[in-house]
Structure formats: structure tokens, C-alpha cells
Amino acid sequence: MNIMTEWTREERYQRIEDVDTDYFKTLKQQVDQSKFRQQFHIQPETGLLNDPNGLIFYKGKYYVSHQWFPLGAVHGLKYWYNYTSDDLINFKAEGPILNPDTKYDSHGVYSGSAFEYNGHLYYMYTGNHRDNHWQRHASQMIARLKEDGSVEKFPKPVISQQPEGYTSHFRDPKVFKYGEKYYAIIGAQNNDQQGRLLLYNTEDIINWHYLGEINTELDDFGYMWECPDYFNVDNQDVILICPQGIEPKCDQFNNIYQSGYILGKFDIEKLTYEHENFVELDNGFDFYAPQTFLDEKGRRVLIGWMGYRKSNILQIMKDGPIA
């Protein structure tokens, strides 16, 4: 599995549990020797890092996870790798926290978010499954963090599939509380190959109800919207989206895929969002999948992913991305 050559499907979907320990040890030693290893930013011990996941301040500690394919700087079978911190400066690597070990997430534990419910920390994430014809099946799943640091997954998805009118590109739930209910905003693609945002809510985190599509003024703005986020700052509603399929325009939209925000007024009952123009969070070429959360002082903190594999940065294939 040379890191500079194309990987086969079988290589990409190997489970780390099935890989020879000596191979993984050698791989880690090779990565450790790189002069580009980070001293401040989070960077995986081996393999590919992508989207930040499960960001939360919970019981005096920060939890930060990210998408992780352990065996190389390519997209393959995704795990969540978790870190904890007391100050968001020094991070302790805790290891994989969500593994692709059920039939619903057999082909990847995809992105999601963390939230607190009845005093416990929960993760909501997208389970990725491929059938015998390699067709994608996406569902939304929940797991609870136990006292010993392990997680217990709900026995079946809380949202089993995308609603009618949308493709299987249905992922990245961001959970937030509004009033007495919990909501999940989920990135989606409609059958016309247009990016969209869908909204669900629940009172018990088990039974989720589909409310519909959030009506924005961005009717034809990319073929898929990933990694959504919603929050309010200074009495302004903010929605973050990562639209895929936006063509570069002068000095705009020069990331491989875009990530940005739209300010406006969200009517959660009518599912309407009156907003300003989409604004990129970063005008470079290598920033993606940001997510936010509140720190211990109630400040809104954003963490993103840089080192996107398809960029042309020297050494990215060799040394891996960072967050």
C-alpha cells in the first residue's frame, strides 16, 4: 500500500483491527520521522484526518474528535478519533471512540456532533453502509458516552433513511437545543442534484420527527451541502454550510470545496431563512468542514480541517492533514 499510488477498494476498507500490528507500528514510526509533524495543531498519529466531530465542553473537559482513516492519507473506512483537553491548547489523545462495528455503519462512522441530554454526553452521527452492489445507505445514529470512556450505540438508527425526494447523500447531523426540544440540521442533496438542509426534532432523542427542508434563498448553489451548523450570535442567526460544486470566481471560491456562513433570521416554525449573501470563512484553498461549540465561558469556538487531500500542498500525501 504505497501512499503515493492509488489504493484499491479492499485496501481502503480494511479495518485497523485486522491489520498486522507490526505493519501499523512501522507506519507510525515513518510518520513520526516527518519534519512536518505538528507541535500545536491536532494531527493524527497515522493516516488521514478529516472533519472535526463531536465538539463539546462537558463536565469540565473539552472533547474533540475527528474523522480518521488510520492506514494512509486517503479516504477509506472512517473511525472517530477522540481527544480531551482542559484548555484547548494541550490535548490528550484518547484513541478511537466510534468504530465502524455495526451493520448500519459498516462502511464508515461519518460526521456528526455531540450534545448533552439528561446529564449524559451523546453523539449523533451518520452511519455509512454499502450493499452488495456498492450502493450507499445513510442513516443517523446515536451513541452515549459511558462513565468508563467507552460508548454504547443505540441498537438501531434514530433516522433510518433520507426522506422522499432526496438522495443518499444525507449526512453530518448537527444537534442543537431550541426551547424544550432538540433539533438536528442535516446536510442533503435533492433528486435534482442540489444541496439542501433538512430539519428534524425530538423530545426524547429516540423518536425524531422530520420537519422539512429549510427554505433558503440559495436555490441552486452547489450539488451537496455538507457539515451544517446553526447558532445565534448577537441576536443574529448563523448557518454554516460547506457547498460542493461551486466554480471559482476571481478571488472567491478557490477552496476545493467551499465553507462559509449566511447571516439572517431563521423562523424555526415556518422553516424559512431570510439571509444575506454566502460569505467564505477562509479565502484560501485548504480549509473545510468547520464546526462550532460553546467553551466553558459561553464563547463560540470554531474548529476546522486543513490539509485537504486533494489540494496540491507539498507533502500532504506523506504527512497527513491537521485540524
Protein architecture, described:
Pfam families: Glyco_hydro_32N. One of its GO terms (molecular function) is beta-fructofuranosidase activity. The structure is a single chain. Helix content is about 5%, strand content about 45%. It has about 325 residues and is mainly beta. It has 2 domains: about 1-150, Glycosyl hydrolase domain, family 43 (Tachylectin-2, Chain A, 5 Propeller); about 160-320, 5 Propeller (Tachylectin-2, Chain A). Strands 13, 14, 15, 16 and 17 form a 5-stranded antiparallel β-sheet that branches. Strands 1-2-3-4 form a 4-stranded antiparallel β-sheet, with no helix packed on it. β6 and β7 form a beta hairpin. It is globular and about 55 Å long. It starts with 8 loop residues before the first helix and ends with a helix. The relative contact order is 0.13. Mean pLDDT is about 95; it is low at about 315-320.
Count of the domains: 2
Distance between the termini: 25 Å
Helix fraction, binned, reads under 10%
Total E-strand runs: 19
Shape by Cα distribution: globular
Rg over CA atoms: 19 Å
- The SSE order reads HHEEEEEEEEEEEEEEEEEEEH
- Average pLDDT metric: 93
Low-confidence stretches: 313-318
Task: Give the gist of this structure.
Helix content is 6%, strand content 47%. The chain has 323 residues and is mainly beta.
